[in-house]
Every structure is written in structure tokens, then in C-alpha cells.
Amino acid sequence: MSVGHTLLGLLESGPRHGYDLKRDYDAKFGHDRPLHYGQVYSTLARLLRNGLVSERGTEAGGGPERKSYAITDAGVSDVEQWLATPEKPEIYLQNTLYTKVVLALLSGRSAQQVLDTQRSAHLAAMRTLTARKAGGDLADVLICDHALFHLEADLRWLELTAARIDELAERVRS
Amino acid sequence: MSTAALLSATGLHKSFGPTEALRGASLCVQAGEVVAVMGPSGSGKSTLLHCLAGIVQPDAGATYYQGRRLTDLTDAERTALRRTDFGFVFQFGQLVPELTCVENVALPLRLGGLRRREAERAALAAMARLEVDDLAPKRPGDVSGGQGQRVAVARALVTEPKVIFADEPTGALDSLNGERVLRLLVSAATEHGTAVVLVTHEPRVAAYSTREVIVRDGRTTEQVVA
Ligand SMILES: Nc1ncnc2c1ncn2[C@@H]1O[C@H](COP(=O)(O)OP(=O)(O)OP(=O)(O)O)[C@@H](O)[C@H]1O
Ligand SMILES: [Mg+2]
């Protein structure tokens, strides 16, 4: 996730102090990973250097947390461009898992066991997300749903691989 | 085997002609548990559910409900048990097309000898929980698939059963409706200590369970020591 673009996007609704920006970010997007202050200020420094934000009236005693930042016109076009650019669809081949399955088959171990273990870990993660949805607001629900659909996609691959395990075993051993 | 188990099965075998649907399947369900039964198509999930519910008689092995061996009961006793203690939800609601929705939901209570007024009052309350009470006078043919499914869930809940057997209950639903049905099933389980046996191949559905059991080639991953 591009923290820079996200901070810029938040600044579009009005200038903010670095501290408020972090709080805003954490509340809206930081569910799993709140920002560090260091990250906020280094990102703001970069945006400042690139002319995408400008500093506003430093209050007395002005450390960085006292500065207020505003988005510039260049910043606004940057956000626009970012929003208009699609994310690269991830061709997320379960590399490690695929390697484990093949290695298990090669060594005469149970590949099914590898898959079963992974399924149970995936389902456990999905249960946690499902429980979080029950107690969460709409933003939580949407974020958890996104994660759930992705984990489900992994599991579908797992099930299909499990169904093809005999075929795979023949190929691997030949 | 844990004496606290509400429902358990050990070493179930069941063949249909040459097809061995179950080959030593075992399962143990505690009150209030939501057990997801997963596994490939044709692996024996539905057959396992039918044996657990006493709908199908296994060739070998036994099912126990509250310490009673289901195979030792007479047909009439098993039928009565299914009516009073078990609730069922299937992929396609299986509502009686000639009855209205509220009559469908009231049916298990009527069969149990409750008078029409009381039965329909309880049915309406169950339907309200599933937000389908406004469909009461309609016939199943005149409601949508998702609505019909919620009516079917209301029917499964109306007797306040000890165990709900659900075989792909959301199979014919879109995600939002499916979630609603699942949330209600699961909250019923947690509120009333109802056990739910939930057959599904969808991981997002299984994520509502407290635990999963995998069926493969007629055997379960769960080992129950008799
Ligand atoms: N009444 C029946 N008569 C003959 N064969 C049957 C019958 N019921 C099930 N079978 C067979 O037993 C095996 C297990 O069937 P079952 O319906 O239990 O599978 P399942 O795991 O529920 O599959 P699915 O995910 O497709 O619903 C299959 O090979 C099926 O064809
Ligand atoms: Mg089935």
C-alpha cells in the first residue's frame, strides 16, 4: 500500500498536523499495521521535497509534530493519477506451498498432510476474520471480506491440488 | 469417547450397491458446537449427515444421540426424535409448495401436536428473527430463493432443536443472503447451545464453524475412540 498516496488523499479534505494525519490513517487503514511516527514524518518529508505538500504555519515551539501540512496542486494531480492507475493483478502462485507439496511427494512424505495442515491454518485465520466482522463496523466488514475472499482463493487452490495429488505424485516421481 | 458428546458416530460404513459411500467415518459433536464437514464432492459428506440424523441406517458402526444408540430405536422413535430434537436445512429449501410460508414453518410444531394458533404464533416469531415474517401468507413458489431459504431456516429453528443439520445451506444463495442465514444459525447455536453440523465446500461458510472435519473417501479426519 502506498502510504504517501494515502496521506495525500487524506490531506485533500484539509491541512493536518502530522500527528492527526497518523491518527486518521490508523483509524481508517491501519487495522493491522498502524503507522510509526517515524514513517509519517519521513513520508511527509519526501512529499515536501517532491512539492506534493507544503508546510503551513509552524506553531511556537515547532517540532515536526507542530507543523501542519497542506496538499499542493501537484499533490492533487498525483493522487488523481494514482487512483486512475489499476493495481497490478497479483499472480499469486503459492510458491512455498507448491514447493512443500512437491518436496513431500518426492521424499515419499504425505503431501496430503501438508495441504491439511495449511487448510487448517487458513481456516483458523478465516474464523478470526469472520469473528471480527461480527463485532465490527462497515469498514471492518469490508476489509475482512477482502481478506476472506483472498484466503478462500488460496484454499480453492489447495482443494484442487489435493484432488490432483495422485496425478502430481506420478509426475513428480517419474 | 467423551460422555459429554451430544451426538457421536463411530466406524460408520455405508454402501449403495457397489459404491462405498462411508468407510469407517467417525464424528463427535458437543452441544453448542458448529462443526463444518468439508471434503471433495462424492466423499460421503451428505451420507454422513444422513446417518448422524438417523435418516439413513449405516451398514456398520453406530450413532449415539444423548447416549442412546440410534439404531436401537424403532422407526417411529427415530421419526419422533427427528421432529423434536433435530432441525434440517438443505441446499434447496424443500418447503411444501401447497402450504403458505407460515404454515411451512409451523408444520413441525403441528406434527408435534401443537394447535394451529400456537404453532403459527411461534412460527411467526421464528420468521421475524429471519426477517421473513412479511412473507407469511405467501406460498414458497412466490418468494425468491434467498427468502425461501430463510423460511426454511426458520422452520429448522422453530422447534428449538438440539441439533441442526445443514447440508450446503447457502449453496443456492448470494454472499449477503448466505451470511445472514449463517449468522442466524450460528447465533442460535451460541444462544441456545444448539449444535450445528454444517456440510459445506465453501471455506467462507466453514469459517463460521468452531471446528472442521474433513471427509475423504468415506473416512473422516477426526478419530473418535469408542
Ligand atoms: N442414495 C444413493 N444411491 C446410490 N449412491 C449414492 C446414494 N447416495 C450417495 N451415493 C453415492 O455415495 C457417494 C457419497 O455421496 P454423498 O452424497 O455422501 O457425497 P457428498 O460428499 O455429499 O458429495 P457432494 O459434495 O457432491 O454433495 C457418492 O459416490 C454417491 O454417488
Ligand atoms: Mg452432498
What attributes characterize this protein structure?
heterodimer; A: 174 residues; mainly alpha; Arc Repressor Mutant, subunit A; 2 domains; three-stranded antiparallel sheet; 8 helices; 68% helix; 6% strand; B: 226 residues; alpha/beta; Rossmann fold; six-stranded mixed sheet; four-stranded antiparallel sheet; 7 helices; 35% helix; 25% strand; binds adenosine-5'-triphosphate; binds magnesium ion; Tscrpt_reg_PadR_N (chain A); WH_DNA-bd_sf (chain A); PadR family transcriptional regulator (chain A); WH-like_DNA-bd_sf (chain A); transmembrane transporter activity (chain B)
Describe what this molecule looks like in 3D.
The complex is a heterodimer of chains A (174) and B (226). Chain A is mainly α and 174 residues long. Chain A has eight helices and three strands, in the order αβααββααααα. A three-stranded antiparallel β-sheet of chain A has the order 1-3-2. Chain B has 226 residues and is an alpha/beta fold. Chain B has a single domain, classed as Rossmann fold. Chain B is built from seven helices and ten strands. Chain B has a six-stranded mixed β-sheet, sandwiched between helices. In chain B, α3 packs parallel to α5. The longest helix of chain B is centred in the C-terminal third of the chain and has 18 residues. Chain B is globular. The mean pLDDT of chain B is 89. At the A-B interface, α6 and α7 of A face α7 of B. The complex binds adenosine-5'-triphosphate and magnesium ion.
Strand content of chain B: 25-35%
Mean of the pLDDT scores of chain A? 82
Strand order of the largest sheet of chain A: 1-3-2
Instruction: Write the element-wise H/E pattern of chain B from the N-terminal end onward.
Output: EEEHEEHEHHHEHEHEE
Pfam family, one (chain A): PadR
Organism (chain A): Prauserella shujinwangii
Protein name (chain A): PadR family transcriptional regulator
Keywords (chain B): ATP-binding, Nucleotide-binding, Transport
